[in-house]
Amino acid sequence: MTVQTPPRARRRRSGRFAPYVYLAPAMTLFALFLALPIGYALYLSFRTVKVSGLGLGKGARTEVWAGFDNYARSLTDPDFIDSVIRVALYGLVLVPVMLGLALLFALLLDSKRTRGRGFSRVSIFLPYAVPAVIASLLWGFLYLPRVSPFYYVFDKIGWDAPDILSSQWVLFAIANIGLWGGVGFNMIVIYTALKAIPSELYEAARLDGATEVQIAWRIKIPVVTPSLILTFLFSMIATLQVFAEPMTLRPLTNTISSTWSPLMKVYRDAFTRDDIYSAAATSVIIALATFALSFGFLRLVQRRAFSQENS
Amino acid sequence: MRLHTGIRAAAIIAATTLLAAGCTSGDDTTSSSPTGGSTEKAEKVDLTFWTWAPGMDDVVKAWNDANPDIQVTVNKQDGGDPAVTKLLTAIKAGSGAPDLMQTEYQKIPTLVAADALADISGAVDSSIAGHFADGTWQSVTLGGDAVYGIPQDSGPMEFYYREDIFTKYKLDVPTTWAEYADVATKLHEADPKAYLGTFSATDAGWFTGLTQQAGASWWGINGDAWSVDIDSAASQKVASYWGDLVEKGVIDNKPMYTPEWNAALNDGTQAGWVSAIWAPGVLAGNAADTQGKWKMAPMPQWNAGDNATGNWGGSATSVTSQSKNVEAATKFATWMNTSQDAVNILVAKGGLYPADLPGQAEALSAPPAFFPNQPDFYTTATDIAKSVQPFTYGPNVNVAFSAYNDQFGKAAESKKASAFLTALTAMQKATVDDLLNSGFTVDE
Amino acid sequence: MTATLAPTKPPTVVRTTTGATGPSNKRSTLSTVVLLVGAAYCLLPVAWVLVASTKSAGELFTTFTFTPSTHLWDNVQDLSAYRGGLFWRWMANTALYAGVGALLSVIVSAMAGFGLAKFSFAGKKAIFNVILAGVLVPGVVLAIPQYLLLAQVGLTNTYWSVLLPSIISPYGIYLARIYAAASVPDDVLEAARTDGAGEARIFARIAVPMMVPGLVTVFLFQFVAIWNNYMLPYIMLGNDRLFPITVGLSGLLNQGASQPAMYTAVITGALLSIIPLIALFLLLQRYWQVDLAAGAVKA
């Protein structure tokens, strides 16, 4: 993609079109590979297939309008409602722990009093490089009592550890994989914000005798609050879309159903039941709910932490 | 499936731009020669074949070497359910499907219902039906005149056990399910860590085979209507039997095919496995060190003296409805599954139990390498294979199987025999609801 | 959803009245230990893959988890021999999808981010918000419609079918906008325009060099995103010679009931596939700065 160099005389006028030229590739790709498929999915969410007779042979299936049937079925499906509640719980467990640890690690990295910072920074960020499917496979091995080193140690010290994949604990097992993969990235985000704080700001406080904890609490954390809010927002969206971890762990246990998370239900409908229509309807519901939550959350925090940009 | 003109136009513009950028696309799925019939004999035909069975590269190589005019390319796929979705999506889109596809027997009605498979009855030799057992042949014809594939292998079920452990604890090989329960109890008492087997809620095909042995047939065709009989007396008998064993704790309740299960096969704490004829391959891969310690026996029976078994696994080779070379594809599929040369390779390299009856004798002359201690392995197996009970699959096996995973997962976790019956009822309901919702006529 | 956010001014320093002037550079054992525990937690599964990939198939399930063995080389050779070296082809494909895809994504995102940050024009806010809304739609849902649309133009089962949809990244555009706003001063652009430089020149010679650190982050971000994406290549590709590593390895794991899962191959493959990524991360270490919010101050 080349941007035409406008002749000097027309420079001012061309300035008006320049932003559109810059945006053209992104908008074209967006339209073709996101907007169009989304629109198509939206269309499919109002369709369904009807079968005649035994449904065998040519022409036995026809696609017809379904109105809001797919939506109504999704919203009244107890499996779907359960999955939403489950994922809400999952988010409540995962997001605060993940961001809390990310903040803690970032603060420790930022403190000159901590040793081994370079090594720790690399190590904690490392899991980000591991695809979720592979991460879940690795943790799966570490969760299964017979092949896990943890259970081996528990056994040796005579502690009867509960099965982490049993129904009471499986949520934590999945959240742990999310935590493992996500804490490093969020740590880097917060650490970047911390590094941007001019050091004079807290050197003065330090000279006045403020402790590291006081400096962190009163100066550093307020400054990184906008980053925290955005990491919270992105983590929330990722939580609602949790999929790869429970999906990969599922064959290892009885306790993860095929509709464990809302997106798994979408997957089951589209890929196991070959019902792309209700899968599309469910995903529209998920997208709208994500939108409402994100928007509501931003509204809530905007007054506190941000000033509205006027452009 | 047609899209709106606007959408298509936009997509075409995008594609043209991109192609103009000059990148070569990947291998085309199907041959470029659309000609059918006799003229194609002179031209070279390229066929693509989606499969996940082992040894396919070897058998295809043998074919390609002998048939320069019909070249087959193996594209190995993920063996899970999504492979079917992938094919169905390609069918909906009107392009992208391979010429040949490995089709598990239980998926054939679903694929036929989606018009994904070509009827090759016009391209096959009429004598071909004689190569297969009636039940096997019926699963590719669905009882009609059409032919939707050439059977490749089948999976008659047997009981596998660790001979050394049975000797150690002085256990007798169970011939009935009542004896199986006794042996399971004795073994678990003798070694509280050991189990004679596990109830696997992730393997719907396994449970289906068990109910098949007990006389169940989950679907049926009644004129123009489907019937669903998952929650039948026969299935209930099987469900409550296993539920009872799980509740007593003498049988494990964890899924098969996990690293945990592999470890148990290795250390002997899974001392038995109700499985199918292809088990030697799985055992060899998962617990190579136990070679020669296992033995195979007929399934325990519901009534002493009976002789019945079910099927777990097995698939056919089908030609898809998008193939432009149905005749060539059929020719290959027929050769692969009914010629002695190909069947020998399938057994030797793939460890399959061939569906082709005439080819069995030669191909199965030696026992599997993993069972050197049982020279008559295949002689016994061939007898057992004759006792597979009839069973009909319906057009929404995927729905029933996914309901099995969820419902029996809950039941196995609860360790309550009553929950196993509840699970069966829930499965029946989910399957019928899905059929009704799609507009099928269901005979209730 | 809007991301036109700007943080408030940093709060004024709270002066404490404690008299003691604490020694600020004293090492703290507690914080070191906490951080090292965190590092150990993150390294543990990686260490596990390392050890597990040295084991033969039998040892994997029979020996203690962290007892290393000597079969790493055998495992690598077995994996390399699998179907005529298909594994390495998957690695090369992954490098192509993630590398080229991320590079194109950076170019597209940088242009869009620059345009959004440095110009005011009709529909700017709407365009930005619409692009960001793309984050809300999960990829699992889009794979099938994307397939059906690409099939209309015959692009399924080609490199394009995976590459093209991977180029557009709402996150990338969001980040690029922030970096452009934060790192490219308006007066520099104005000066260049006064000197008669064309837009292409301004972008390529002035804006991009200033944005480089941020763009490297976008590259890493998108590289990992494409690397991680399983559903799109899974549904798009029928030809196993076009598969990326994730789809290929998952096929080795899901072999159907009558086949043992190839755990040793998958674990060795996982190890080999993580190594280049780790190398890339270490190489670009100094660019790890994901500034989600700060840049918006000047926007």
UniProtKB/TrEMBL annotation, chain A:
SUPFAM superfamilies: MalF N-terminal region-like, MetI-like. The chain crosses the membrane at residues 20-43, 87-110, 122-144, 169-194, 223-244, 276-298. The keyword Mitochondrion does not apply. Keywords: Cell membrane, Membrane, Transmembrane, Transmembrane helix, Transport. Its main location: membrane. It is a multi-pass membrane protein. Residues 84-297 form the ABC transmembrane type-1 domain. Pfam families: BPD_transp_1. GO terms for biological process: transmembrane transport. It is found in: Cell membrane. One of its GO terms (cellular component) is plasma membrane. Belongs to the binding-protein-dependent transport system permease family. This is Sugar ABC transporter permease.
TrEMBL record, chain B:
It holds the Pfam family SBP_bac_1. It comes from the Bacteria. Gene3D superfamilies: Periplasmic binding protein-like II (3.40.190.10). Residues 1-20 form the signal peptide. Coiled coil: none annotated. InterPro entries: Bact_solute-bd_prot1 (IPR050490), SBP (IPR006059). Keywords: Signal. PANTHER family: ARABINOSE-BINDING PROTEIN-RELATED, DIACETYLCHITOBIOSE BINDING PROTEIN DASA. This is Extracellular solute-binding protein. It comes from Cellulomonas rhizosphaerae. The lineage of its organism: Bacteria, Bacillati, Actinomycetota, Actinomycetes, Micrococcales.
TrEMBL record, chain C:
It is a multi-pass membrane protein. Keywords: Cell membrane, Membrane, Transmembrane, Transmembrane helix, Transport. It comes from the Bacteria. GO terms for cellular component: plasma membrane. The keyword rRNA-binding does not apply. SUPFAM superfamilies: MetI-like. The keyword tRNA processing does not apply. Residues 1-26 are annotated as: Disordered. InterPro entries: MetI-like, MetI-like_sf. Its main location: membrane. Residues 91-284 form the ABC transmembrane type-1 domain. The chain crosses the membrane at residues 33-51, 95-114, 126-148, 160-182, 202-227, 261-284. Belongs to the binding-protein-dependent transport system permease family. This is Carbohydrate ABC transporter permease.
